[in-house]
Amino acid sequence: MQLLSTMLTIRFAHRYAEKARELASQTSCPTRKAELQQIAANCDRVPEFGARNFWEACQSFWFLQIMVQIESNGHPSPQMPFRPIHVSILKR
Fold first, then answer.
1. Cis before residue 47, ω within 30 degrees of 0?
2. Per-residue model confidence as pLDDT tens digits over 40-72
3. Closest of 79, 78, 39 to residue 60, by C-alpha
4. Distance (Å, rounded) from C-alpha 67 to C-alpha 22?
5. Cβ atoms within 10 A of the Cβ of 47, count?
6. What is 31-60 written as a DSSP string?
7. CB contact set of 48 (below 8 Å; sequence gap of 6+)
8. 51-76 core/surface letters (b: 16 or more CB in 10 A; e: else)
C-alpha cells in the first residue's frame, strides 16, 4: 500500500506540473507565466526526488499536506509544522 501511495503521489505531482505548464501557456502576464513555469519545474522534481532549494521544499511540503488530507478521506488532520521539516533547506 505504501508503494502505491508513493507512486500515486508522484503521478499527482507530474499531473500538477502539466497543468501549471498549460496555464503558463495561456497567460499573457510575464510574471505569472514565470511563476507557473517555476511551479511546473518544482513539481517535476518533488516529491519524487529531494528538494534542492526553498521553493522545491515548499512544494514538497504542500504535496505531503494534500496527500495526508486525501488519505484521511477528507477528514481534518493536524497540520505538520513547517519548520522542523525544512530547517536544513532554509539554512543553505
1. yes
2. 999 999 999 989 998 998 898 888 888 887 777
3. 39
4. 23
5. 20
6. HHHHHHHHHHHHHHHTTTS---SHHHHHHH
7. 10, 13
8. beeebbbbbbbbbeeebeeeeeeeee
Contact assessment for residue 38 and residue 55, using Cβ atoms and an 8 Å cutoff: yes
Question: pLDDT value at position 84?
Answer: 57
Total number of residues shown for the chain: 92
32: closest CA among 24, 40, 22, 43? 24
Task: Report pLDDT for 40.
Answer: 97
Q: What Rg do the C-alpha atoms of the chain give, in angstroms?
A: 14
CB atoms within 10 A of CB 38: 15
